[in-house]
Structure formats: C-alpha cells, structure tokens
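Quick one - first record:
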Amino acid sequence: MKIKSVFKYSLTNMVKSIGAFYGIFISVCILLIILANSSGGTVSSSGVELSSAIFIFIAGLNSFKENFYFMKSNNVSRRDFLYGTILSMIPIAFGMSFIDVIINRIQNIFISSPTNYDMIYGNMRTLGIMTEVNKGIWVQNNSIETLLNTFLFQGVVYAFAFALGFVITILYYKSNKLTKVIISVAPVALIVLLNLIIDIYPGILSGGIKFIQFIFGWNTLNPYAAILTFIISFISLSLIARLLTKKVVLK
C-alpha cells in the first residue's frame, strides 16, 4: 500500500533533522545547568518545549514541495501522499513529546524548568508564577496523571503545529504572486479588523475571551478540553490539506 510507503519515507526523512534538533536542544539545556551551578545564583527556564513546536511547524513548512515532486515521480497519488505524510506526523509529534517530558524531568533535577502544561494547567496557576520558581518555592508535580497529561498536551500541540505549517506551504505553492501577498497580509488585516469590531462592539471581546477559555479549559484547569480542541483543529487542517491537494499540479 503506497500510504505505508509514504509513511515510512516521511519518518525516515525526519530522523536526521530531529537528531540535529535534539543535539542543539540538549546542549542548551546542559549549558543552562552549567550556568546555574557556576553562577551561584538561581537560574530557571520555562516553556522550552515551545522550541519543539516551532521546529515541527517549520518541518511542516518544508514537507510539501520536494516530497510531492518525489512521490509524483514514483507514481504515488496525491491522496496517498497526503495521508501518508499526515499520518507520519502523529508518531513524530508524540515521540518528540515523550522525549521532551524525559528531558524536562531530568533538567528539573538541577534547575527549575516548568513546562507550558505546568504553567497553564498544573500547580503553578497562582500569581507570581516565576517569582515562585526563582525563589525555589515551586516543586514540579511528577504524578502519573501530570506526566500523561503533559505528554498528551504537548503531542497534540506538535501535531497541530505541523498540520498548520503543511497547509500554509500548500497555500503558498498553489498561489500566484498576488495571492501570496494577500495571504501574507491577511493575518495583519484580520487583527486590524477585529480591533475595529471590538471598538464598535466591546461585548464581543469578553464573549471571545470566554469562548477561548472554554475551548482550552483555562478557567476550569481542564487540559482535556485543550487536547480535544487541538485534535479537532488537526483533523480540520488535514481535511483542508486534502481539498487543496486534490488538483494540485507540478510546477
């Protein structure tokens, strides 16, 4: 089955990049630990796993054109190429999440390094979060529930980041110069438009904030709401990618 072949190819293609990324990532973590021990002061870091999300987003941006050309030259259909590529990112996203959890727990032995999960849904949801960290008051929760939730939360964020980058690069690939400019300017124009709407209808802002808090479970400290939201977003972006690639041609 060609989907399986694309799946294996995408995984293999990412191994070297992931290895290089973690080589740099671990080196930075070690440097922080050395600085903490040599300075005599308290050194802390937070949310460093965001770098993994940025890495996998960039991977999504670079996973279409060359791979699409290669697959078409091997008579792989657009459908098989898309599904194989999307499916390959699921084990990569959760594999990276697993590695990040391990690295983070080791790093926390030496310096305080709360994850985004700790800061949003964990035991750091208090005022003066970083003050607690810097004073050495905060202690990371290593319960099975926290470890599992951190792993799942990071995994779905990484998968979403890849799908977002993948869709963006397909949009750019299919667009002419004018459309590319429009796509690039659209986020800024949307922000300006939203600001105008909020000025005219102030109630929309509070309603929008409540909606965002609900779908991400911020008020109730419910990480499963965020996990579900990212899963739905990942599936939606995958469907959009499928629609965009149905009639895509080689350029």
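second record:
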Amino acid sequence: MRSAFGTTFDVDGIYLNTPSIGVPPRPVVDAVSEAVGAWGRAESSPPQFDEAVDTARASFARFVGVSPSSVVLGSAVSGLLGLVAASLPAGTRVLTAEREFTSVTFPFAGAGHEVIEVPLEDLPERTVSADVVAVSVVASADGALVDLEALRSEVGPDTLVVLDATQSLGWLPADLSWADVVVAGGYKWLLSPRGASWMAVSDRLAERLVPHQSGWYAGGWHAIYGLPLRLHPDARRFDLSPAWLAHVGAATALPWLESLDAAAVHDHGVGLANRLRAGLDLPPAESAIVALRHEGAADRLAAAGIRAALRGGAARLGFHLHNTDADVDAVLEALA
C-alpha cells in the first residue's frame, strides 16, 4: 500500500509500467468493484450508468479544453481514429512521426491514405505538404514530446491536426484545444479501466465525419428501435455504446485527477524521471517516460522485481503519482 496525493494505491513492489497500464487509486478500484458486485446481484440497469458516462466525458473535455458536446465516446484509440480516416477523401496525405504508435497510423494506412513518416523534430516544418498531421503528444516508445507550439505555428489553415494524448493526459499540462482531434485511451495515465476512450473533434472536422459506426447510443434512449435515422445533434452522434464498468472507474479517476495541482503532478513524475537520468549520466528531459538502452537493462530490472516494459529494444519506465525516490534508487541499484 502506498499513499500519495491524498489517496492510496495498492501497489506491492516497484511498478514503473504506467505507459502500459496505469495503477488506479483505491477509490477507483472500490467504485468498479461495487459496480461489478451490483451487476452480479442483478441490481444493475442500463440507465443508471448514464451519469458515470456523462461525468467522465465532461472531465475529459476539461482536460482538453473543449466543450463536452465536442467529445465522442469510444473503446479504443484506433477505433475512434478509424472513424476519422474513413471520412477523409481517398488519397489524403497524412504526416506522422517515425516510430509512431500504430493505433495512430494504421487507421489511416488501412483506409488507403498516403502516410508519410518523418523524424519527430522535423514534423512541424514538414506540415505544409500534408492534408493531415497525426502524432502523439508524447511518444509511446521513448517518451519524446512533440513541439506543440512549433506544430501549431507551422501548420497550414487547411491541414487537420490529430493528436493522440494517451501518453500525456494525466501528467502533462498542455493546451490541446486548438487541434481538430484529441484522442486518448483512459487506461494509462488517466488511471481508468481499459474500454473507456474519448475523442474531442473540432466543428470543421465534425461536419466531415460520417457516423457509419453509430448505434443506438448515438441517438439516445428515444432512438433504440426503428427508422428513421435520428442522432444527437452534437458530437454524441458519433458515439459508440460505452463499456459501462469502464466508465464507472473513469468517472471516479478523471475528476480526482482534475482536482490535483497539475504542476505538482507534472513536477513529481518528471522530477523522478530526471533523477534517474542524472544517476545514469543521461541529460535531463521534460518527460515522465524514460527509455533505457543500457545493455541487459530489461533483464536486470526484471530480476530485481521492478516492473517495466521492453519497447523498441529499450527498457521503458514511467513515473506517475504512486512512484517515489526509493523506486529510482532501486532502478539505479539494479543497473549498477
């Protein structure tokens, strides 16, 4: 059990794998457990989950800086971006970063669009040749940050900007409201169950999207049987029916994360990451994710009982709310 930021985490051992799966605080676990118990006792009914869905949607909207009416529900980043990719003209030129997470690139490539990879640092200046720029705010493989200010200043007025904030929301304060798409899965730094994902869409993009995957939830309770087509007038018309239990957890996790001092959360994670970098003679960075290419690093960490991930040939570690200086010391000892 660990105490941090006014709550507790049932973390046993050293867990540095938040970039893969976030560890929820105890109140999130309790909320989901209570909902599962009610389901098992036949005490659940579909309408009772509407409040949790609305709460999580509104909280996500505030993280991004948009209205809840601009937020689409989904279950995974790739599915939500598939909606975008399928609504674009054939042959759309999509610019992305090298080694970008494939849930960002595959939906566009699978739809037959031309996807062009460039080094992350070169991406802003190359946007002039693209119809769409699709990139992660923080790279999954190594924690590198895209230069949002440069991207915003360089991108043309007709180019759509798609940002995957899965590896940034929850620890990196940033203005994302200007992008045409901000999508994120909730099960990493937002400390929610897998199955809750959201996508904020700009008005100009929403006009172009085709609600080809919308079901009854996109129309609401009055639209569950029969034609004609009748969908919500805002971005909810693109909703997928939510994974209810996942949104129960998200409705607890996201508002709690919102209530924290965003600067303190950022400084905590990045501070620990930089303490590790300093101990390994690496330059400081502005990321809570550290990719270590030291020989045998992944095996040494595993042997020491430290949970991390192997990504792109590097041991990937992420520092979030429950982590401490002692965790950094343990990594340094394991790699000594």
